Amino acid sequence: MREQGVDITPGTLFDAEEMVINMGPQHPSTHGVLRVILKLDGETVKDLDCDIGYLHRGVEKIAEHDTYAMITPYWDRLDYVAAVSNDLCYVGGVEKLLGIEVPRRAEYLRVALTELQRIASHLLWLGTHAIDIGAVTVLLYAFREREEILKIFEDFIGARLTAHAFRIGGLWWDAYPEFEKRVRDFLKILPGRIDEYETLLNANRIWLSRTVGIGVLPADEAINLSLTGPVLRGSGVKYDLRRAQPYSVYPEFDFEIPIGENGDTYDRYLVRMAEIRQSIIIIEQALDGLPEGPVMAKVPKVIKPPVGEVYFGIEAPKGEIGVYLVSDGTTKPYRMRIRPPAFINLQSLRRLSIGHLVADVVALIGTIDIVLGEVDR
């Protein structure tokens, strides 16, 4: 008998060498309602499968019955800790379908907000990943800095978590007078705070024992699994859509793409920490070069893209998020398909976990950095 791909042939309780247990969907370290079915030999993982769909809301089907503008808020609820990045993907897809050129000031502000969102997402990942492994202090430190970003979002956008940041054609409103100063003040303190995190973790023997050599994924296997984001770059693959398939005004900024050497959980941690530092560099350049002008293009009151189809993807905090849109010339898309990075990256969990201990599965779920709203959609 099999369930979700795992062989659960019954055996006697004490004579059987293997047993099947559930981790989740209420387990805190599954980062949402994820059910992980583990086949164990003692504490060693022999097989693993994931049961998903507990948060399925049918967003792609809903899109067929809403206008293009009405769909936008649904994207805030996909990766609900990176709502700003989700919005950029969707509105970018519609703008590509319409052939709209977004004002440069709006593009610069979009980059600044999106990179702030990347930092906030990585900080939440760091805090939850650390507390999963037992480092409680890092959670408190990381959420301290993330709170400052959420305050900036709240004053700019009106929301903290599911921040509905962008509109088709640009921004609904311009930056408030204190926006630039508040962001610069935050960026001044952030590098020192990152140093604090790394002082706590980089040479910590417990952290090293739980991450070094755990979940090693070679570059060729990461590519074959279609992984993207820090999980792929942790395996040494220098692929980032901001460079590989440039969008917005990213080609105008100077920044590096961090990669790992060993492809283990520790390398994926280092990559994300380095990405936070690179986001600081990008935001500073965006603020330094912020042009004057409008923040909204001339968009028809009734949006009716021409008949056609388009795919548009961006580098979200967790990897490539993309939208495939098919227009039939009406006010509603004929089809909308989402390419979610967490859903695709999650398939690597089985490959990463087999041969490791149950305790390592906790670290491996964290190193992938999944959000179930995006996995289930």
Question: Mind explaining what this structure looks like?
Answer:
The chain has one domain: Orthogonal Bundle (Cytochrome-c3 Hydrogenase, chain B), CATH 1.10.645. Helix content is 47%, strand content 12%. It has 15 helices and eight strands. 45% of the residues are buried.
Quick rundown:
This protein is α+β, with helices and mostly antiparallel strands.
For the structure shown, list the relevant keywords.
377 residues, alpha+beta, Cytochrome-c3 Hydrogenase, chain B, three-stranded antiparallel beta sheet, 15 helices, 8 strands, globular
Radius of gyration: 21 Å
- The helix count comes to 15
Roughly how much helix do the residues carry, as a percent range?
40-55%
Which residue ranges are poorly predicted, with pLDDT under 50 across at least 5 consecutive positions? none
The CATH architecture assignment turns out to be Orthogonal Bundle
**Largest sheet: spatial strand order:** 3-4-5
Number of domains: 1
Walk me through the topology.
Elements: E1 2-3, E2 6-7, E3 19-23, E4 35-41, E5 44-51, H1 59-62, H2 68-76, H3 83-98, H4 104-133, H5 136-157, H6 179-201, H7 205-211, H8 219-224, H9 230-233, H10 241-244, H11 265-288, E6 308-316, E7 319-327, E8 335-339, H12 341-346, H13 348-353, H14 358-368, H15 372-376
Antiparallel strand pairs: 1-2, 3-4, 4-5, 6-7, 7-8
